[in-house]
Design a protein that fits this description.
By secondary structure, the chain is α/β, with parallel strands linked by helices. The chain has 3 domains: 65 residues; 112 residues, Aspartate Aminotransferase, domain 1; 247 residues, 3-Layer(aba) Sandwich (Aspartate Aminotransferase, domain 2), CATH 3.40.640.10. 40% of the residues lie in helices and 18% in strands. The protein has 18 helices and 17 strands. The strands form 5 sheets. The protein has a 7-stranded mixed β-sheet with strand order 4-12-11-10-9-5-8, with helices on both faces. A 4-stranded antiparallel β-sheet has the order 13-14-17-16. It is globular. It starts with a helix and ends with a helix.
Length: 449
């Protein structure tokens, strides 16, 4: 009897509740909802249903499918370059300027002076050359692409010398040995896990050697009885042996970083003093811009990279160029506070404490909370195992466990962290304008419970 009551699809989709919605999508969803109903009736999991319930089910699924799954979050973890939360934030004004490019025809590959086809890379070359004092620049879609393109261009069927202590694996199982293999390069490991000397590089060089490569240890550090060779020394040896020297920096920074983060982490400007063949780094980490892989170095080598057919698959679009160029211009104008990543990194500890205390005053009448001094990390594989000071607000409520409070916050798009069985809101990454939002959410969720 229930099976006979299931409405016909063609009649059901004419309901007024679906007016103005995509008929094609409503039809697809309706078929799925009615088929699920049929299956559940046969399994005797459904004993009754009504049409209003079916309409609601279809509308809910329509909303679920057509709503954006990407949502803006409040990052209260304290991790500034949080890979899972989209890494670096972009300055709002930068994005507004990029909108003009994205919504207009533009001179992406058009030379306005000559009135003919131009090169897309010229748009970023001028500003980066000025900032970093390099011969030439190439931008691809991320630093992994940069590594692959460089190895494939210069080291196919040739040896690349790399220290064993730098054979990294980063997120998503991106491993240097596998990348080399797929690029056609031949890996030649030298040294040991904890110690590599300059003589190891010298002894490894053969007729088939093309490159001496250094790789940034993005997500780990080797402490204790250890040593490694600086890129400056590698670069000198490469020039002497007429080889390419290349540093995969992972996340390069332009200027020295606060809290002694730059110790043993030379800036891009510092590295350029050794006149390297090639460097590559990410645009969306410590640079504080959009996702991109930035390659800088010798003009003759960059020209060869541009001739590799793989580049067409790895190149970036007009929006990336617009956002990256605007970011680089902020560096050139010394407007570093306009780069959110650097602004958060450089915010004084006293300011974070004041913000934490302000929120405490708003919520302490209904939530047990305490302002504590803590530490966090930059994140994103930037400065492994290096801590930066911060202030956080601990949250406790009745007999709720920490994971329950964390879940309530997460459902309200606030991402916190749990430490010592307490939920922490770390103010290193909480934007000042988000404090009011957090207070309102906490009041809604806990004040009258």
């Amino acid at each position: 009897m229930l099976l006979k009551s299931i409405p016909k699809v063609d009649k059901f989709i004419t309901n007024k509740a679906f007016e103005g919605l995509s008929k094609t999508l409503i039809t697809k969803i309706t078929k799925e909802v009615l088929e699920n109903l049929r299956v559940n009736i046969l399994k005797k999991d459904v004993k009754n249903f009504d049409e209003e319930g079916l309409i609601s089910a279809v509308l809910d699924e329509y909303q679920n499918i057509t709503s954006s799954s990407l949502k803006p979050l409040i990052n209260a973890t304290g991790i500034i370059v949080h890979t899972n939360l989209g890494r670096s934030l972009l300055n709002e004004d930068i994005f507004k300027n990029a909108i003009k490019i994205a919504t207009s025809y533009n001179n992406l590959e058009y030379d306005l002076e000559k009135g003919k086809r131009g090169e897309r890379y010229e748009h970023i070359t001028k500003s980066l050359k000025k900032l970093l004092d390099c011969e030439d620049v190439l931008v691809v879609n991320n630093n992994a692409s940069a590594v692959f393109l460089i190895l494939n261009t210069f080291c196919k069927n040739k040896e690349v010398v790399v220290s064993r202590g730098e054979l990294v694996e980063i997120g998503g199982s991106f491993r240097i040995p596998e990348v080399m293999s797929q690029s056609g390069a031949i890996l030649k490991e030298i040294g040991t896990t904890n110690k590599t000397h300059l003589r190891d590089y010298k002894n490894a060089i053969s007729e088939n050697t093309s490159m001496l490569m250094k790789v940034h240890k993005s997500n780990y550090s080797i402490e204790g009885f250890s040593s490694e060779v600086s890129f400056e020394e590698i670069s000198k040896l490469s020039k002497y042996e007429n080889l390419i020297d290349y540093y995969d920096m992972g996340s390069g920074h332009i200027f020295d970083l606060p809290y002694n983060l730059s110790k043993n982490e030379p800036s891009i400007i510092e590295l350029m003093k050794s006149n390297p063949s090639l460097l590559s780094f990410s645009g969306d980490k410590l640079l504080g811009s959009v996702q991109a892989g930035i390659i800088i170095g010798k003009k003759e080598l960059i020209e060869k990279l541009k001739k590799n057919q793989l580049l067409r698959m790895l190149r970036v679009d007009k929006i990336t160029f617009a956002l990256l160029e605007e970011s680089i211009n902020l560096y050139l104008k010394n407007e570093l506070d306009s780069i959110p990543t650097l602004q958060m990194l450089n915010t004084k500890i006293e300011v974070l404490e004041t913000r934490a205390k302000d929120l405490k005053k708003r919520i302490e009448s209904f939530l047990k909370c305490e302002v504590i001094k803590t530490s966090t990390m930059v994140g994103g594989g930037t400065t492994p195992n290096k801590k930066i000071p911060s202030f956080a607000l601990t949250l406790e409520f009745k007999n709720f466990k920490a994971n329950k409070i964390e879940e309530i916050l997460r459902k309200n798009l606030i991402i916190a962290r749990i430490e010592n069985d307490k939920v922490l809101l770390d103010f290193r990454t909480i934007k000042e304008e988000d404090i009011e939002k957090i207070a309102n959410i906490l009041e809604k969720e806990f004040k009258n419970v």
